[in-house]
Amino acid sequence: MKEINFLAKYQKATKRDYVQRVVEHDKAESAEIARQWGRDYWDGDRRYGYGGYSYDGRWRPIAEDIVREYGLKAGDKVLDVGCGKAFLLYEITQAAPGLDVAGIDISEYGIENAKPEVRDRLTVGNCTDLPWEDDTFDFVYSINTLHNLEVFDLKRAIQEIERVGKDKKWICVESFRNEREKANLLYWQLTCMSFHSPDAWRWLYQEYGYTGDCGFIYFE
After folding, report:
1. Residues 46, 47, 48, 50: is their CA dihedral positive or negative?
2. Domain ranges for the chain
3. How far does the chain reach from its first CA to its final CA, in angstroms?
4. Bridging pattern class, strands 137-143 and 100-105
5. What would the pLDDT profile of 68-92 be if each residue is shown by its tens digit?
């Protein structure tokens, strides 16, 4: 299993005040609202999530790296599990024109406000029950989604990604390599339910039969 951290440069460019996230507002209340995956999470106050998530082109370099790494080309079928507003999925279509793309997300608001160019390729649904046949996609990826699941749902979601994908897959989740990063993750996160080290994630992937690549986001 190869570890590929496509988002590393993007992650380091974002400055965060971890302690302020906890003391400035009622963190428990903010988390409850965030996990409704509605307007507040995407486009409401920063305490509830993104604090306004609009298209700005920042995903293009990441899309180009993904296309290059996996050799994606016209005619390939690509699935984004937890696509949200599908900004990255759109950028992948620009980096490799002619792809047949699809996305799924639990957030109706996210899908309704997704990039218009790919909105008709998106589905509201749960990653634990993907509505596609076995081996449908040449490449399946998931970013910042699976750590939001309880462990019993996590198993099903990973097995679903494995089922609908062929040989090219990549899953990226939030994780920690030391106690400082673990504390920062706990301070910052609003929606996580599965907190594991990279080694524990790899163990889970192997236990659940996942054969793709992995990536991690660290809160340094």
Report:
1. positive
2. 8-16+59-218
3. 24
4. unpaired
5. 999 999 999 999 999 999 999 999 9
List Cβ neighbours of 37 (8 Å cut-off, separation of 6 or more).
Answer: 106, 107, 108, 109, 110
- Model pTM? 0.95
Please state, for a pLDDT cut of 70, what percent of the chain lies above it: 98
Is residue 139 over pLDDT 80? yes
User: pLDDT for 31-58, tens place per residue?
Assistant: 999 999 999 999 999 999 999 999 999 9
Ramachandran assignment for 173, one of left (phi > 0), alpha (psi -120 to 50 degrees), beta (any other)? beta
Structure tokens at 141: 């990826």
d(CA 15, CA 71): 32
Half-sphere exposure at residue 63, Cβ-oriented, CA atoms within 13 angstroms: 20
Tokens 């076995």, located at residue: 134
CATH of domain 8-16+59-218: 3.40.50.150
Position 12 scores a pLDDT of 66
